[in-house]
Structure formats: C-alpha cells, structure tokens
C-alpha cells in the first residue's frame, strides 16, 4: 500500500477507487477488506518471465496508449514472448505490432456493444477462457485494472499478476502501483511498468506499420495529391463526444474553399448517414473538394491515409490517438466527458492541438449529454477551421498564425 494512501484513512474517502459512483466504491472496499482477510496478497515472483500476457479489453484509443508499454516490455525481456488478450475491435491494431506473438480475442466483454444484453453469455465465456489458459503465462498485466480481470488472472494460475487495485480486487494482485486520479494515461502506463522494474523511455520512438497492401491501396485511391490533404474523422465512440453534422458541414465548406484543401471524411459504417448529411449541405464548389470515404477503410488503411495527410481532425476517439501515433499533425475536439489533460493524444513530434470548451459539468462520464444544447461541444466551425489552417502553415511560419480564441480550460486550453 502506498504511503499517501495509508495517511488518508478510509478507502472510500481517500479516492483509492476510480469509480464515480459511491456505491461501487463502498462495494469494492468491502470486497477488498474481506479478500485481504481470507486471501492475503501473495509475494511477487522476481524471476524474468518467459511468457507475458497483456490484458487490454477496452477501446482502440486505450490500446494505442499502451504502445510504448509493449515496446518497453520487449526491451526489458527480449527473450520473452508477449501475447495480448483484447476485444475484437482492437485485434487489427495488435496484429500489426511486431512485438506481439499471439492474440487471444474476447468477443464478449463489457466493452462490447449491447454488453448488458449479452451478460449471461459473456461472463461464462470470459472465465472459461481463463481456465483454458491455465499455466500458460508467467506474468499478466491488466492495463485497465478491474476486479473481473484480477479474478481472471487468478483462475488462469498466472504467478505474477500486475494491475491497479483502484478497480477492486487488489488482494488478488502481486504487483500494483499507487493510483493517482486524473493522471495522464501515458504516465499511468509508465507507473504500471515501474511497479515491476521496467522503465519506459521518456521519448521512445514509436511506430505503427500499416503494411504494404494498405499503403498501396491508399496511394492508388488518392492519386496525385497536389494540394493540402485534410482527413476528418466525423464519428465518436459515444453521442456525448460527437460534433454535430451541421458544424462538420460548415467546417468542411470553409476548409475546402478558404484553405484550398482536399478534405476526406472517414468513419465507421454507422456514420455513413452523418457523412451523407454533411455532403448534402455543401455548396457545389465545396463538394468538388470533399470526398466521403466513411465505412470503406480498414484500420490499416485508415492509418496509411492519415500518415499521408497534412492535418487530421476529429473528436476524442481512437482514430485521434492513431493519428498521433503515425505522426500526423492533429486537431482534436474534446467534449466534457473526460479530462483532456488525462486522455489527450500524445505524439513524439507532430503537433496536437486540443480544443475544449470549459464547462462546469465536466467531467461527467456520460455517454449521452442530458443538456439540450450540449454545451461542451459548441466549438464553432470557424474555431476548428482556424486551428486546422494554422497547422497547414509551413513550419517556418507556423508561429505567425493568428491565435485561436476559444473558451478554454484554464489548465489545458488549446495546446500544441
């Protein structure tokens, strides 16, 4: 137990648990108290692991944030094999990482769509997979830190179990760092590995190779690019993070005409209707420079496209982290759902501009905004265009661009 936690007293008043609702904090405080009495934490095995399993069942953005962690693990134990247990929606990403040897896919877990409806189906399948993997790994790392995952690692008989006790089940782990609320996620990954003696280089060089087939397909479809190329991901993981189709249309109109840019709209198949609405609202002059590619790209093709663009723009979502990973200058529209300082994309060198409206209700953690005017996503088309146009400037004259005047979070604001 970390020192500052011992000083603060009761777990539900200390912020030990990351849950927003008090009932979950109290529940896991009781579970952990009882578990510590019945099953005290076992000692951590210190020998070099031969087989490592990374448990990453959450979203694409979370998986991308873990990229430096995977590189550091291979550097620390070059003879060890590294496997991953992930959701079907991140399988393609992990398949492109040379450090990963085997991928175990969980198609039913709480991050799947309609997971509540499938609860009785995925819980048995989830824990059955743990029994099927018994004795296969020396170490497992639960990146998110959740009670079911800690229990899963125990059922799989994994000697060294690394994770966060902030999700409950700390007595089931062998190694866990101190939980720091609102810490930047990439720093949390660093703290997680520090608990097992592995350090992530502060400026480690990262890469994501889309593959020759994806690069060739995108190059053929793009043809000759003779003017600025802007890729706009018009979707988001939840309604609360979406920018309206009307504002996307206004932004695309201005970017195509005033910046003389070629604009490509991308997104999932579920966002095709939004793209159609955007295209229908454009003037004929702007429509000639805006293309709708929504629902047509694989993850590797999206990465190949974004790697070639001059600027990427989109909401807080997995593709925004992908853009930062491949080195695309980016403009990211944050809602009030999460803290931008905690979840913003990080790039080794390319500029990332974060736009966020300062609202009193943030962070709300809602999937759908209960307010009619959705105040945290009131970025105007002009503000977003200005941020994009600034990144389109030549690097020598970028400092001469006009400042972006928006309502800003005092600590974050529009950062580059």
Features:
disordered C terminus; alpha/beta; 17 helices; five-stranded parallel sheet; six-stranded parallel sheet; globular; 2 domains; 11 strands; Rossmann fold; 416 residues; disordered N terminus
Description:
- With 416 residues, the chain is α/β, with parallel strands linked by helices.
- It has two domains: 42-194, Rossmann fold; 212-400, Rossmann fold (3-Layer(aba) Sandwich).
- The chain has helices at 3-8, 11-14, 22-38, 60-65, 67-76, 91-95, 119-132, 147-155, 185-194, 212-222, 245-258, 272-281, 284-287, 299-308, 318-325, 340-343, 381-392; strands at residues 51-56, 81-87, 100-106, 139-142, 160-162, 229-233, 262-266, 290-292, 311-315, 330-334, 352-356.
Helix content: 25-40%
How many helices in DSSP terms?
17
* CATH architecture verdict of the largest domain: 3-Layer(aba) Sandwich
Question: Widest sheet: strand order?
Answer: 8-7-6-9-10-11
H and E order: HHHEHHEHEHEHEHHEHEHHEHEHEHEH
For this structure, what is the CATH homologous superfamily of the largest domain?
Answer: Glycogen Phosphorylase B
Uncertain stretches:
3-14, 394-416
């Amino acid at each position: 137990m970390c020192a500052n936690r011992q000083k603060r007293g009761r777990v539900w008043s200390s912020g030990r648990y990351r849950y927003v609702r008090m009932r979950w904090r109290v529940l896991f405080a009781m579970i952990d108290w009882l578990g510590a009495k019945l099953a005290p934490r076992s000692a951590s095995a210190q020998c070099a692991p031969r087989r490592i399993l990374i448990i990453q069942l959450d979203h694409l953005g979370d998986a991308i944030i873990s990229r430096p962690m995977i590189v550091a693990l291979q550097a620390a134990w070059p003879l060890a094999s590294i496997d991953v247990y992930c959701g079907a929606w991140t399988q393609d990403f992990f398949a492109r990482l040379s450090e990963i040897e085997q991928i175990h896919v969980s198609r039913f877990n709480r991050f799947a769509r309609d997971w509540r409806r499938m609860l009785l189906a995925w819980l048995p399948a989830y824990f059955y997979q743990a029994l099927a993997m018994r004795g296969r790994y020396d170490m497992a790392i639960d990146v998110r830190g959740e009670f079911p995952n800690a229990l899963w690692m125990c059922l799989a008989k994994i000697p060294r179990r690394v994770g966060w006790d902030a999700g409950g089940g700390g007595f089931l782990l062998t190694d866990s760092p101190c939980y720091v609320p609102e810490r930047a996620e990439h720093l949390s990954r660093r703290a997680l590995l520090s608990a097992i003696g592995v350090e992530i280089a502060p400026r480690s060089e990262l890469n994501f190779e889309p593959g020759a087939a994806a690069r060739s397909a995108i190059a053929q479809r793009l043809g000759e690019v003779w003017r600025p190329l802007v890729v706009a991901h018009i979707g988001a993981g939840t309604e609360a993070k979406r920018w309206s189709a009307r504002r996307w249309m206004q932004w695309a109109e201005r970017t195509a005409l005033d910046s003389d840019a070629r604009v490509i709209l991308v997104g999932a198949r579920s966002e095709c209707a939004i793209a159609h609405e955007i295209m229908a609202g454009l003037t004929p002059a702007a429509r000639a420079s805006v293309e709708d590619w929504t629902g047509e790209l694989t993850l590797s093709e999206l990465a190949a496209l974004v790697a070639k663009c001059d600027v990427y723009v989109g909401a807080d979502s997995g593709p925004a982290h992908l853009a930062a990973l491949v080195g695309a200058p980016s403009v990211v529209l944050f809602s009030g759902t999460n803290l931008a300082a905690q979840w913003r994309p990080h790039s080794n060198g390319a500029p990332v501009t974060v736009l966020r409206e300062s609202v009193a209700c943030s962070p709300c953690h809602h999937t759908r905004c209960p307010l009619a005017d959705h105040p945290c996503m009131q970025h105007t088309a002009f503000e977003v265009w200005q941020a994009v146009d600034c990144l389109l400037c030549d690097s020598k004259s970028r400092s001469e661009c006009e400042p972006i005047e928006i309502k800003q979070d005092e600590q974050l604001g529009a950062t580059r």
